[in-house]
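request received
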Amino acid sequence: MDVFGSFALVLAFICAAYAFGGGIAAIITRHPLLIKSTRQAGMATCCLIFLATFSLEYLFFSDNFSIAYVVSHSNRDLSTFYKIAALWAGQEGSLLFWSLLLAIYVFSVLLTYRNKNGELMPYVGVVMAGVQIFFLTLNNFVASPFKVLASPGADGVMHYVARADGNGLTPLLQYPEMVIHPPNLYSGYTGFTIPFAFALGALLARYPGEKWIHLTRKWTMIAWMFQSMGILLGAHWAYAVLGWGGYWGWDPVENASFLPWLTGTAFLHSVMMQEKRGMMKVWNVWLVFCTFLLCILGTFLTRSGVVSSVHAFARSSIGAWFVSFIVLIILVCLGAYLKNRDYLKSENQLDSIVSRESSFLFNNLILLVSCIAILSGTLFPVFSEWITGDRISVGGPFFNKVNIPIGLLLLFLTGVGPLLAWRKTSTESLKRNFGWPLAIGVAAGVIAFTFGFRHFYSWICLILCVFVASTVLLEFYRGARVIRARSGASFMASAVDLTMRNTRRYGGYIVHMGMVFVFIGLAGAAFNRDIQKDMRQGDTLQIGPYTLVLQGFDTKPEKNYTAQRLLVEVLQNNKPTMMLYPEKRRFSTTEENGTMVAIYSTLKEDLYVVYAGTSPDTQLPVIHAYLNPLVKWIWFGGVVVVFGTLVAMLPNRRAVLVLAAAPQPVGQPVAHGLPSSVTLREGHD
Amino acid sequence: MKKQAKFGVGISVIVASLGFLAWLGYGESKTYYHTIAELETLNGSARSQRMRVGGTVAVGSIRHLAGRVDFVLEGEGKTLPVSYIGTDPLPDTFVDKSQALVEGHTGPEGRFVAEVVQAKCASKYEAAPGGKGGAAPSATEPKGM
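response:
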């Protein structure tokens, strides 16, 4: 099977090379058969990568311990679930996994547009094939996952050797989220290849109009959604597994995943300027280019360990390949831009500072500043070593100081931006749209202050969250009221109807609402508390309203590890509430330890209990308990963001039926002073 | 032109204040990377900087004491005694022969006082696994957001 896999990878490389070279020839000659054959070569590449991945998984499932990669990341007792995840447990497999996910995207694109956009697609195909060639080069020649174990025998000739069992999967990855977090994140990273390919292709082809933006909108949103999920799942994994009570430590690899998300978010917003007003064309093209570059950089940082991180210590040789690829992409993008920049001329100028355009512009600038700050902070050790010879790193305070105000500014714009009119917003409409939300937000702030809420940033965050949530709810309320007046349906049904008529706009609002929830959760971090204590059986520990009573210990042998559990009874306000079982796990094959945190999570707060080991002084087990307010809102917000993104991807339902059936009340919204808010104004999307 | 000027002012104010915050954060958290061998050669103000040192945990050197954990890091033929004084539990991966990164200050008598310890087990096969999916070591982390 390893030979099969290797062959599939070599063939995939050849097919990709043909799709690339043949594609360029097809662009020059415009020969229809050549165009068709390169497209099919592109699709064949994808199928072959799929076969290669399949054979690696087969090797895992058949416990083939003659393959180095299988030995390193699996063992016989590893459960099925984690044998799937073992695919991306190391360098070689992760890179193959990258290729696989990219192949799925490329295949879908080639299939979807096989009979459409004939002028553009050959260019797009060439760009996609180019990216595939790079990763297939790594898969084939630099980090092959199919290397077999061999050692020199007595005759001096190399012999294959097979091990009886593998080393097992590192305990930190033996956690359900580790099975879904990397696929999500990688789907995000790889997904941005598609908008990149279209943007570069359109620029090279001088493809007229804004069509590439319409074509790539859904692909960008899919990539963005996966990236968002990947980041949040990673945060949740760090929270639930690493046992330090936090979910985000500004670790280089975390940052690496966050960077393309920032530029991708900026891009999703600024394309609207191009669609509606023909502005920001150069900016948009470069945003896509940068997003893709940051995806490659993210993969590079994750894989190479160039910056010391929780995730990657050792440096590897793969770095040079990535750096060369990044430089190559920059050169190609720069060349294409310089050659065809006249095609990106803006059609309009900024009209007013209080307008949708300017709010988008600010949103973009702030996202970009955040991105630059995080990028420079992440790469600081590398650059400082180049410049001064000293390797200097910056930590949490640096990132937090810059990004907390940025986050709050963005939150503010989330509320304001969508309700500003294009071109110029009148004072009248400002009052109408923001009067109530502002009043409610300030009221919430005053109430919180009188109840002793004193943390400055969290307090501002609270006001803004209430403000933004009010603007979103007000929009739904107004729109739904108009529809209800026409159709007589219930309020909920009207709100759903409203959403379905302009999915892009209202889906966007739902995403914004999700972000509000995420911010509520983040603001809670200012009030985290923790306490650590050596516990004798029957001892109690008090944190907030909870009393923890150590009832006992037990040892539970499992297939792959032995778990030492603490039996902790939780009393809330002195009433027995539940039992928690924080664990220490000892993995037999790797002789490594793992921690399982026990979390009692409510919307108000998380009680987070860690079995922190044995005290050297007293030989008693140590419990480290954290009380982290509002954390659940972050995960909940993430779910809402994903839901909103999915809604925004649905096609709009036309409103023809309702308009024809009930012509009479159409005038009603005018009487309410809302002529434009539902039917005429083009959505925030 | 006037609009663009307004815009420019707005943006400059934002960027300038963020830059100032970044500078504050930089001063508060900058940490120098040094090897164990380099530590000996440092003098003057360079010794009082916050720094990060990497090495291998010497076999049998980990001693749990009241309020701190002492151990010895080895690297490039040199050794460095370390006292970990952080409150977070040491990572599960912190054992004899594991690779460790310690963060803190140099203390009296050549002892390094660490507030943060990251550790990774020496992998049995790969010299350089790393990566999100790779051997993700655990750490005692300063609490971020």
